[in-house]
Design goal:
The chain has 128 residues and is mostly helical. It contains seven helices and no strands. It is globular.
Length: 128
């Protein structure tokens, strides 16, 4: 029975937008959306995520440091953990990154974050 709810939470996470009551705070979700959008190369996704970031009144200068959050101040350990799967999933290191996410987030929040990443990574074009 619990497994059904885990799956349901994962599917619902795909439609989770900031400000629509989820487990993950809006700032973290917006950070993940922005980095995933940048990595996917989708101009519309990038602009949309930046618009949502500005609309939330968050510091725009933080977005400039998003490319290397592990070396940048301004990110919490939980935010760094949430951002790690963005680069790890396409490289095949997703399981390890998700283990790190689970140290900071519950299963429902992990599903939200992975759903957000998948929403943008599904639009990546294969360069080969």
């Amino acid at each position: 029975m619990d497994r059904q709810f885990d799956t349901l939470n994962g599917y619902l996470a795909l439609s989770r937008k900031p400000g629509i009551g989820g487990v993950v705070d809006d700032r973290t979700l917006l950070l993940v959306r922005q980095l995933a959008a940048e990595r996917s190369g989708c101009r519309w996704c990038i602009e949309h995520a930046q618009h949502d970031w500005r609309a939330a009144g968050l510091p725009v200068d933080l977005l400039r440091r998003l490319g290397s959050p592990e070396r940048s101040s301004g990110f919490s350990d939980a935010e760094r953990a949430a951002l790690a799967p963005v680069d790890a999933v396409p490289s095949g290191a997703g399981a390890r990154a998700i283990t790190v996410v689970r140290r900071h987030y519950c299963e429902r929040a992990t599903a939200e974050l992975i759903g957000c990443i998948a929403d943008h990574h599904l639009s990546i074009e294969d360069p080969s």
